[in-house]
TrEMBL record:
GO terms for molecular function: magnesium ion transmembrane transporter activity. One of its GO terms (cellular component) is early endosome. InterPro entries: Mg_trans_NIPA. Residues 332-352 are annotated as: Disordered. The chain crosses the membrane at residues 16-33, 54-71, 77-107, 114-133, 145-169, 181-202, 222-239, 246-270, 282-302. Keywords: Cell membrane, Endosome, Ion transport, Magnesium, Membrane, Transmembrane, Transmembrane helix, Transport. This is Probable magnesium transporter. It is found in: Cell membrane; Early endosome; Membrane. It is a multi-pass membrane protein. The keyword Ion transport applies. Acts as a Mg(2+) transporter. Can also transport other divalent cations such as Fe(2+), Sr(2+), Ba(2+), Mn(2+) and Co(2+) but to a much less extent than Mg(2+). Its main location: membrane. Pfam families: Mg_trans_NIPA (PF05653).
Length: 352
């Protein structure tokens, strides 16, 4: 298997690929487990995470999902220390496939023939990206990464992300967060792009430290750790809101598309991943990415949108009371006759 411009994949790249695939499997499963936990918590307390409730913190199933996600994120964290972001991030498409398949069988969220085609496209696009991915550049100190982070181009990107996130959180989220899926997922994705850059910096620092070159003596390492913690906590909060408010098969692909695009953009700016690659390799990577993103969109549109309440709840700015009732319908996955008692109880609570 080749990498870059016809070169063999390096050992580090192979390690990064394996870790990224394992990560995607765990994270995809965690979406489903956490949503089941959010449902149970909402039934028990009557207050959903999407409207500010935090009762899910007392729900064991939610914690099982969180632990599963943490395992996946740790694998993802380590993967970024071995391979470039333009290689690791698109492989997260597998999490969409895992999530969609499990949602089909566990949450009764139907996956149609086009959804299967979307899964195949995600896999095919990922293979193309792996074949043409750039080699990981050798970094000998966290200060090298710091110098990359303070480039004017990347500082402009960071400033833009912070401004947009503040506007979304303090203006659009209170007004349209419950009726437009893009609000919560945009916040997660924007913060996610910064967290990945910091994760790569921190992962590389720890890797060098374990290899004998201590990077913990540098303040830059601890700064990157602080950025990771801040971004991840913000992502967790708004991802919980998105999952509790909207259909899993809608949240997952939209989040993936936005997160992947922004992360690759940030990585290309900061780490200059495409520097030294031929135009053919870069074009192949972009085409592979487009195929992957198209596959996730297919997984998105193959959901059953015949129910007017679902489509209106996601895209129309409705009154708070109507939005609450319609979002209650989003938690009803599959046929009413087969809905679990806990879901019926939840819908009854939300109708009042």
């Amino acid at each position: 298997m080749g990498g870059g411009d016809g070169q063999e994949l390096s050992t580090d790249n192979v390690k990064g690929i394996v870790l990224a695939l394992l990560s995607s499997g765990f994270i995809g499963a965690s979406f489903i487990i956490k949503k089941k936990g959010l449902r149970r918590a909402a039934v028990a307390s009557g207050i959903r995470a999407g409207v500010g409730g935090y009762s899910y913190l007392l729900e064991p199933l939610w914690w099982v999902g969180m632990i599963t996600m943490i395992v996946g994120e740790v694998a993802n964290f380590v993967a970024y220390a071995f391979a470039p972001a333009v290689l690791v991030t698109p492989l997260g498409a597998l999490s969409i496939i895992v999530s969609a398949v499990l949602a089909h069988f566990i949450l009764n969220e139907r996956l149609h023939a086009l959804g299967v085609l979307g899964c195949v496209m995600c896999i095919a696009g990922s293979v193309v990206i792996v074949i043409h991915a750039p080699q990981e550049k050798e970094i000998t100190s966290v200060r090298e990464i710091w110098n990359m982070a303070i480039q004017p181009a990347f500082l402009l990107y960071v400033a833009s992300v912070i401004v947009v996130v503040f506007v979304l959180v303090f203006h659009f989220s209170p007004l349209h967060g419950q009726s437009n899926v893009l609000i919560y997922t945009a916040i997660c994705s924007l913060m996610g792009s910064l967290s990945v850059m910091s994760v790569k910096a921190l992962g590389t620092s720890l890797k060098l430290t374990f290899e004998g070159t201590n990077q913990l003596v540098y303040p830059e390492t601890w700064f990157f750790m602080l950025v990771v913690a801040t971004c991840v906590l913000t992502q967790m909060n708004y991802l919980n809101k998105a999952l509790d408010t909207f259909n899993t098969a809608i949240v997952s692909p939209i989040y993936y598309v936005m997160f992947t695009t922004l992360t690759i953009l940030a990585s290309v700016i900061m780490f200059k991943d495409w520097s030294g690659q031929s135009l053919g390799s870069i074009t192949s990577e972009i085409c592979g990415l487009i195929v992957v993103l198209s596959g996730t969109i297919l997984l998105h549109v193959t959901k059953d949108y015949e129910r007017i309440p679902q489509s209106r709840s996601i895209y129309a700015p409705l009154s708070p009371s109507l939005t609450t009732r319609l979002n209650g319908e989003l938690l009803k996955q599959g046929d009413d006759d087969r809905a679990p008692d806990e879901e019926k109880a939840l819908r009854r609570q939300e109708m009042y």
